[in-house]
Design a protein that fits this description.
364 residues, alpha/beta, Nucleotidyltransferase, domain 5, 3 domains, 5-stranded mixed beta sheet, two-stranded antiparallel sheet, 7 strands, globular, Transp_IS110-like_N
Length: 364
């Protein structure tokens, strides 16, 4: 059995919240009743992490379960995460919004590393069933490579968009009637045409510098396209190692699928579908006072996963008859279009969870 799936004795466990930073981390330990047991600040180095592991052994007498919460497990806490995940059965990722909520609704507004670590303990003791675990798959080389490639692909896309907008303006300044100046996309054929056109010395361009800028940006855009194609190929190969079955879901392209896989980091982290939907930031938040009861859209959750599911829902709304029928059914029930879309997103999230859990293709 995977160590991350073993049952946990929460009553006798030692709860440890860790506030991570680039150069050092602060850990605070407490029991089930949030009574402080110790505090440690240690450097973010292999030696510092070894000191932390020894400290936890002393606290737990080498027998009690340690439940660890890390905020920023995929950022500054990556080295710590990789060290503690194989050792402890219960390592959880804590969304910063949870600690912010605890701080905002508390009686004190203190902000320090030990205070943040104590707030994580409060989250662990009160919301443990809602938190995703950090698993061995989360720390695998393939998963980290996929996460970095997805981030790199997004950066390339933003750079392409910026260059296209700049070229639109430059082309419009030269010839406002040109098809290229009004085109939303730039094909390689169009870009090569403008390279040839700007090479002519008799072209009525304001100055030589403007011609130089245009040609330079075209070359940058062509290089970005080549690089993104290479990144797409590498992402495709990595997706095939994980849940390639998600590609059978209508609206889920290769990049959207890669974003879901890299955001989820192993479906085994989630004990049930409710945890998954909440992690995606789709589960509604209840606001109730007296006889008034409302549900509002959650602002927390993993934004990358939320955006990927939103993209699938919008695509299905345009192209999938069943999704259109479901959306129209919610409208007929009196829901607004925005609320109906959130319902469709939740439906998509449930399908994604089932496909990743069972490893099956979409059956319609």
């Amino acid at each position: 059995m995977n160590i991350n799936n073993e049952p946990i004795d929460q009553n006798s466990a030692v709860y440890i919240g860790i506030d991570v930073h680039r150069y050092q981390h602060t850990a605070v330990a407490a029991n089930r009743f949030e009574e402080a047991m110790g505090e440690l600040t240690f450097p973010n180095t292999p030696g510092g992490i070894k000191e932390f592991l020894h400290w936890t052994d002393v606290l737990a007498d080498n027998s009690r379960t340690r439940i660890i919460g890390i905020e920023g497990a995929n950022g500054n806490g990556k080295l710590l995460r990789n060290a503690v995940t194989p050792v402890f059965p219960a390592v959880y990722e804590i969304n910063p919004i949870y600690t912010k909520q605890r701080r905002d609704h508390g009686t004190r507004g203190d902000k320090s590393d030990p205070v943040d670590a104590r707030l994580m303990i409060e989250v662990l003791t009160r919301k443990l069933d809602e938190l995703p675990r950090v698993t061995s798959q989360d720390t695998s080389d393939s998963m980290q490579a996929l996460s970095e490639l997805v981030a790199f692909h997004d950066d390339l896309t933003r750079s392409q968009t910026r260059l296209k907008n700049q070229l639109h303006r430059l082309f419009y300044d030269i010839d406002a009637t040109s098809e290229t100046s009004r085109s939303r996309t730039f094909s390689n054929k169009q870009l090569k045409y403008w390279l040839t056109k700007t090479a002519k010395t008799d072209l009525s361009i304001n100055c030589t510098m403007q011609r130089f800028i245009i040609r330079n940006k075209i070359h940058q855009l062509l290089d970005l396209k080549k690089t993104r194609d290479i990144a797409d190929d590498q992402i495709t190969q990595l997706v095939a190692q994980f849940n390639g079955n998600l590609l059978s879901l209508p609206g889920a392209g290769i990049i959207t699928t890669a974003k879901i896989i890299s955001a989820v980091k192993g479906i085994g982290r989630f004990g049930n579908i409710r945890q998954f939907v909440k992690y995606a930031g789709i589960a509604p938040v209840e606001h109730q006072s007296g006889k008034t009861r409302k549900h509002k859209q959650a602002k927390g959750g993993n934004r990358q996963l939320n955006t990927a599911i939103y993209t699938i829902a919008l695509t299905q709304l345009r192209c999938n008859p069943k999704a259109k029928e479901y959306f129209e059914k919610k409208i007929a029930e009196g829901k607004t279009k925005k609320h109906a879309l959130r319902c469709l997103m939740k439906r998509v999230a449930c399908i994604v969870y089932g496909m990743m859990k069972g490893g099956e293709v979409y059956r319609g």
